[in-house]
Specification:
CATH topology of the largest domain in chain B: Rossmann fold
Strand content of chain B: 5-15%
GO cellular component, one term (chain B): recycling endosome
Pfam families (chain B): Avl9
CATH class of chain A: Alpha Beta
Oligomer: heterodimer
Family (chain B): Belongs to the DENND6 family.
Domain UDENN (chain B): 26-488
CATH architecture of the largest domain in chain B: 3-Layer(aba) Sandwich
Strand content of chain A: 15-25%
Largest sheet of chain B: 5 strands, antiparallel
Structural class of chain B: alpha/beta
Number of domains of chain A: 1
Number of strands of chain A: 7
Shape of chain B: globular
InterPro entries (chain B): ABL9/DENND6_dom, DENND6, Tripartite_DENN
Number of domains of chain B: 3
Distance between the termini of chain B: 11 Å
Largest interface: A-B, 36 and 32 residues
Helix content of chain B: 40-55%
CATH architecture of chain A: 3-Layer(aba) Sandwich
Number of strands of chain B: 13
Strand order of the largest sheet of chain B: 2-1-5-4-3
Order of helices and strands of chain A: EHEEHEHHEHEHE
């Protein structure tokens, strides 16, 4: 593979899914820009975000696909799942309906990704505890029953947001290391860039901090 | 791309009233002496301009000569104040055009305003106090010392004679001016006159005249300004001519320096002359051509609990003699330079030009001279001083002496910069290291020891006749803000250049074959990277040929085409 040795050794593809208005784009924005986006427009189709993180001393570039939550885009979004190494499934703790739809999102995720895709359940808007409509315990039980990682987070305060993205990456990386994720499978959603060796200082990707892609 | 469209719409936007005015000036302030309040801001024009409390107060105090200077008649000088945070604004497209080719010494100042003062004090029996005292202050972010002095000289007397409508008319004229873009011959109408100026560019050869015959306007110019920012070095420094080399070193190193003079005109022009002596290097330390005890930075700059700050201050109030007693370097200028240039000049080479050693009598001693314990690293250029002294004896005109002095400083500073530039060039990655599919290579780190070693063999001795401890001078310089800012600027210029070369290389790469057998994730990564680079061209103002941008956009289209149709649709939309 003659891929360019930028200063990351892997690319992980993530998708963010869930009902409209649960805060998917805000979670992404908080993660890539460390800012809360107050007036977030509806996502049309898909938006991309990227950030380079480090797991076990390896630089990993996250390529995050932020999908539209509106029902009318549901048919289109199916093609986004292909090759995702991680799926972040989001509901809003203050709106029960968004929680109730999780099984249908989970079915999509299971059917359209490979068995090793790490699925992380996120109860967003954790800052609005007074308006809570779904208890932590209930969601935790759902996550356990379905083998999902789970955290409540807040895109507004930034609480747990970092953890969600990093924990997912750690789990994927662990799967690579113990061999359960086959890098050679086209659908793995993970791209190893073996020509990037640590110590090649010339190859630092000079990305200014504000340049995370938000096309 | 979206970014390209943005720039288009910017150009279409029409110019709003005061947009052009604000390219040149912030506002005009009229400061008067109120019997009850003291110095007070009579009005600001244009009247929508807002100034912070501290800006207003500083302007009021700096608009009048400080105590005991008894300036009768008309007095002109310049001051510099800190901008309040709220008044700093975002950079516009026009700011970019104005700064692109601008020498660093002429760049719009983001953190300070320059106040160009025209003060009039005349007897007027009809007034209660018996005196008319008023100042017109042109406030601008542009360090065009000479230019604004001349503008104030045109506007202020008109205002004093005919009142407010004159300012209104003048500001209206200025609002019609083209933007101060370097290198272009500019035609500026002002109160029935036409001014012709050309802002120098950083590519100009030193010594280029303001308007060249080839600019085709010189012949029809009824009024041509002699220079935008040139200070008459000879007139401003004539009291301290034997010490110009030492002073040059102090300014270069950003040493704390105070200039005490009998009038704001003298202290301001001396400070400005010192600051411009290191041109084309910019003095990044704060400097205040005129500073008073009422200044909002007074406490900060005169505290004795810390070492004196790296600033150059011009003062007239005798009170400062005590305040600055502990300062390491003091320039005192007596009555000289007050217009009576017929006075005798100190011999440039004889013994009476020796430095005054700091002693306890210093505060009381008001003799012209430089008071410091500083030992210069470089030896005086005796050859130059001899030539110069000959000119003095032979009554060579002041302007010629000034040009001589300017050229001498320029040669000295250039000789100082050349080794730094040469070393910087050696830190550049080789062109062959720029590989389109790798990240752009970075500049090697600046290693002082390596640089000093280079100076030993290939230092300024190659271009300058001045002898002395050049390495010692560099060692000190490298620790100064003047070096730090110079290096940061040069580094970002070089990095922008590398990025542009990298973009060109990427645009010429056969990415279609690269895509062959690549996974979707990797191809999407490439598309995102290309997009990011294209948006960087706009956000970082990279100079890239239009053809390169077009090729990069085509690259995106062609590699998107290599993806399955459903994904293609997504990427084109997103």
């Amino acid at each position: 593979m003659a891929a360019g040795p930028y200063n990351y050794s892997y690319i992980f593809k993530y998708i963010i899914i869930g009902d409209m208005g649960v805060g998917k784009s805000c979670l992404l924005h908080q993660f890539t820009e460390k800012k809360f986006m107050a007036d977030c427009p509806h996502t049309i189709g898909v938006e991309f975000g990227t950030r380079i993180i480090e797991v076990s001393g390896q630089k990993i570039k996250l390529q995050i696909w932020d999908t539209a939550g509106q029902e009318r885009f549901r048919a289109v979004t199916r093609s986004y799942y292909r090759g995702a190494a991680g799926a972040l499934m989001v509901y809003d703790i203050t709106r029960r309906s968004t929680y109730n739809h999780l099984s249908s999102w989970l079915t999509d995720a299971r059917n359209l990704t490979n068995p090793n895709t790490v699925i992380f359940l996120i109860g967003n808007k954790g800052d609005l505890d007074a308006q809570r409509d779904v208890t932590y315990e209930e969601a935790k039980q759902f996550a356990d029953e379905n083998g999902l990682l789970f955290l409540e987070a807040s895109a507004k305060t930034g609480d747990n947001v970092e953890d969600v993205f990093l924990e997912t990456a750690k789990k994927i990386f662990q799967n690579i290391q113990d061999g359960s994720l086959d890098l050679n499978a086209a659908e793995s959603g993970v791209q190893h860039k073996p020509s990037a060796r640590p110590g090649q200082t010339l190859n630092n990707e000079q990305q200014p901090k504000d340049s995370n892609c938000s096309c | 791309m979206e970014t390209a469209e943005n720039t288009d719409t910017k150009e279409v936007l029409s110019v709003l009233p005061w947009d052009q005015f604000s390219e040149w000036m912030h506002c005009v302030c009229v400061v008067t002496f109120d019997l009850e309040l003291g110095q007070a801001l009579e009005f600001i024009y244009p009247n929508h301009i807002e100034l912070s409390e501290s800006e207003r107060s500083n302007i009021c105090y700096l608009a009048f000569p400080d105590s005991n200077s008894g300036c009768m008649g008309d007095t002109q000088y310049c001051f510099r104040i800190r901008k309040g945070r709220s008044t700093r604004r975002k950079l516009t497209e026009s700011d970019y055009l104005c700064s692109k080719d601008c020498p660093v010494t002429l760049l719009k100042d983001d953190t300070h305003y320059y106040g160009y003062v025209y003060f009039r004090q005349v007897r007027d029996k009809t007034l209660k106090r018996g005196y008319f005292q008023k100042s017109v202050v042109l406030l601008s972010s542009l360090p065009y010392f000479n230019f604004f002095k001349d503008i104030a000289d045109i506007i202020a007397p008109e205002y004093f004679d005919n009142g407010e409508p004159c300012l209104e008319a003048a500001c209206h004229d200025i609002d019609q001016w083209p933007s101060p873009v370097p290198g272009k011959p500019l035609t500026l109408p002002l109160m029935g006159m036409i001014l012709h100026v050309r802002i120098p560019t950083k590519q100009d050869k030193p010594g280029r005249k303001l308007i060249e015959a080839s600019d085709n306007v010189a012949s029809l110019a009824p009024f041509t300004l002699s220079s935008i920012n040139r200070i008459d070095l000879f007139e401003s420094l004539q009291g301290v001519l034997p010490h110009i080399h030492l002073l040059w070193e102090l300014v270069l190193l950003g040493e704390p320096l105070v200039v005490m003079a009998p009038s704001p005109t003298v202290c301001a022009s001396t400070v400005l002359a010192l600051v411009s002596s290191i041109s084309p290097l910019r003095c990044y330390c704060d400097y205040r051509p005129f500073f008073t005890i009422h200044d909002s930075e007074f406490k900060e700059y005169t505290t004795k609990t810390q070492a004196p700050p790296r600033v150059i201050l011009g003062v007239t109030n005798p009170f400062f003699a005590k305040t600055f007693q502990h300062w390491p370097h003091i320039v005192r200028i007596g009555d000289m330079g007050l217009g009576n240039s017929g006075g005798s000049n100190p011999s440039l080479l004889s013994n009476d030009s020796k430095l005054k050693k700091t002693s306890k009598l210093k505060a009381l001693d008001s003799k012209t001279g430089v008071y410091t314990k500083y030992k210069p690293f470089l030896k005086k250029d005796k050859l130059f001083l001899k030539t110069f002294a000959k000119g003095l004896a032979g009554k060579r005109p002041g302007t010629a002496q000034s040009t001589l002095l300017e050229r001498h400083f320029l040669e000295l500073t250039q000789s100082f910069i050349i080794p730094l530039e040469r070393y910087l060039a050696s830190l550049m990655p080789l062109q062959k290291c720029i590989s389109p599919l790798r990240a752009p290579p970075s500049l090697k780190p600046f290693r002082p020891e390596e640089f000093f070693q280079m100076v030993e063999n290939n230092g300024p001795q190659l271009t300058s006749g001045t002898k002395g401890d050049w390495v010692g001078l560099y060692k000190r310089f490298i620790q100064s803000p003047n070096f730090e800012q110079w290096f940061l600027r040069r580094r970002s210029e070089i990095e922008a250049k590398i990025m542009s070369l990298h973009l060109v290389a990427l645009s010429e790469t056969d990415l279609e074959s690269w895509c062959y057998e690549k996974s979707e994730v990797e191809i999407v990564d490439m598309v995102l990277r290309l997009r990011q680079k294209i948006s960087m061209v706009t956000s970082h103002r990279l100079e890239v040929p239009a053809a390169t941008l077009e090729r990069l956009n085509n690259q995106i289209t062609s590699i998107t085409d290599s993806l399955p149709p459903d994904l293609r649709g997504i990427l084109i939309k997103a």
